[in-house]
Amino acid sequence: MNVRDSEHIIAELKEKENYELTQDIGEADLILINTCSVREKPVHKLFSEVGAFEKAKKAGAKIGVCGCTASHLGSEIFKKAPYVDFVLGARNISKITTAVNTPKFVSTDINYDESDYAFGEFRGSPFKSYINISIGCDKKCTYCIVPHTRGDEISIPMSLILSEAKKAADSGAKEIFLLGQNVNNYGKRFSNAHEKVDFSDLLVRLSEIDGVERIRFTSPHPLHMDDKFLEVFSKNPKICKSMHMPLQSGNTKVLREMKRGYTKEWFLDRALKLRSLAPDVSISTDIIVAFPGESDDEFADTMDVIEKVRFEQIFSFKYSPRPLTKAAEFGNQIPENVASARLTHLQNRHNEILDEIVKAQNGKIFDVYFEELRANGGVAGRSFNNFLVQVQGSEELLGKTLKVKVDNPKRMVLYGNLA
Ligand code: 5AD
Ligand code: SF4
């Protein structure tokens, strides 16, 4: 989502203020940092990074702080880093042109409605197009700062999404990647009158666009994975067979304290139904270990779900108390050494599972959409079910979808040859 926000900012500055991108910090007239605040570590990094920018920048160059940390710290950022010129929250990026022209501009309003703002055109990759389908999140999970930095959820009008997808397809991007905090809640609230649609309807409409060959999205919420959604996901031939299912915890009591809205059994039922409807699907997840009060037995439930679902990919984190969140006030915060031990245990076991999954890919043939030149001379792309696959080759493969036979599968990359 931050990548897409950065693309929107770049588009606005190029089209309305005549800026051009540079990677040379000494040449830049404006240095922007787009921040995350979901865990504490990136917030600390912000201040060391802007300090380094201040030293490296040319005289008179401006520094702007954007994104979720901008939303939650606001003008506090000037106190710690007085050389910062403006602060623009994650829900206020349409004001970037005002920000660059107004000394000490601060805008962090989380009620601000950007849902039907038509941003300019800029994409980092010609091969795929990120498209926002909603802003904000209504869920208020007790550990999560996002609803406090991105505000309540508003869906973007379907006509805007369809026209962005058409434009992307016309320019040759075969893949669209839909973005939202909670994509399968799409259609719950629009800021203006709108026909009744849900996420499954949106997926079907997008799949009818000529030139759109692959549709991906993130993140769906396990609670909203109803049968209609799983059916559309599994049957529609343009929807990539890779699902992110953020588990967070495998224990029903912990899930209740996190306010996730589902039980261990519901999650397992949905994941296993998905595997039976779409046997090639790869499922990824997010897991938080050592949520306040999590006992060894409760953590064992998380491990049990890992054994049963055998996720193709896991993003795992130690719980990090965040300002403005309910869980930060809970008693029973778990000691650091226990949290680290749980994280290591989970990651080690998952690596074993992953090694088995990866080994089983040997000899398989995948349709790979090539989109990236690799530093070691290869060309890489994603299989329909989201494995990163690499072959020897050059630019001429980019933008093509070709069959690859895997003969050397590794954890991060499946190596193979054009079939
Ligand atoms: N501590 C640790 N991990 C967190 N996440 C969100 N908030 C926290 C927190 N306070 C994780 C969740 C989420 C992912 C984007 O970041 O797993 O799905
Ligand atoms: Fe945060 Fe929960 Fe919303 Fe995801 S669904 S952004 S974890 S509040």
UniProtKB/TrEMBL annotation:
Domain spans labelled Radical SAM core: 123-356
Co-factor: note: Binds 2 [4Fe-4S] clusters. One cluster is coordinated with 3 cysteines and an exchangeable S-adenosyl-L-methionine.
GO biological process, one term: methylation
The reaction(s) this protein catalyses: N(6)-dimethylallyladenosine(37) in tRNA + (sulfur carrier)-SH + AH2 + 2 S-adenosyl-L-methionine = 2-methylsulfanyl-N(6)-dimethylallyladenosine(37) in tRNA + (sulfur carrier)-H + 5'-deoxyadenosine + L-methionine + A + S-adenosyl-L-homocysteine + 2 H(+)
Enzyme class, broadest EC rank: transferase
UniProt xrefs under InterPro entries: Elp3/MiaA/NifB-like_rSAM, Methylthiotransferase, Methylthiotransferase_CS, Methylthiotransferase_N, Methylthiotransferase_N_sf, MiaB_methiolase, rSAM, rSAM_horseshoe
Compartments it resides in: Cytoplasm
MF terms (GO), sorted A to Z: 4 iron, 4 sulfur cluster binding; metal ion binding; methyltransferase activity; tRNA-2-methylthio-N(6)-dimethylallyladenosine(37) synthase activity
Binding site for [4Fe-4S] cluster: C137, C141, C144
Keywords carried by this UniProt record: 4Fe-4S, Cytoplasm, Iron, Iron-sulfur, Metal-binding, Methyltransferase, S-adenosyl-L-methionine, Transferase, tRNA processing
Pfam families xrefs: Radical_SAM, TRAM, UPF0004
GO CC, one annotated term: cytosol
MTTase N-terminal domain ranges (all copies): 1-105
Cofactor: [4Fe-4S] cluster
Keyword Acetylation assigned: no
Entry EC no(s): 2.8.4.3
CDD domains: Radical_SAM (cd01335)
Keyword Iron-sulfur assigned: yes
Family classification: Belongs to the methylthiotransferase family. MiaB subfamily.
Purpose: Catalyzes the methylthiolation of N6-(dimethylallyl)adenosine (i(6)A), leading to the formation of 2-methylthio-N6-(dimethylallyl)adenosine (ms(2)i(6)A) at position 37 in tRNAs that read codons beginning with uridine.
PANTHER family in UniProt: CDK5 REGULATORY SUBUNIT-ASSOCIATED PROTEIN 1, MITOCHONDRIAL TRNA METHYLTHIOTRANSFERASE CDK5RAP1
Subunit structure comment from the entry: Monomer.
NCBIfam families per UniProt: miaB-methiolase, MiaB/RimO family radical SAM methylthiotransferase
Protein name: tRNA-2-methylthio-N(6)-dimethylallyladenosine synthase
Species of origin: Campylobacter mucosalis CCUG 21559
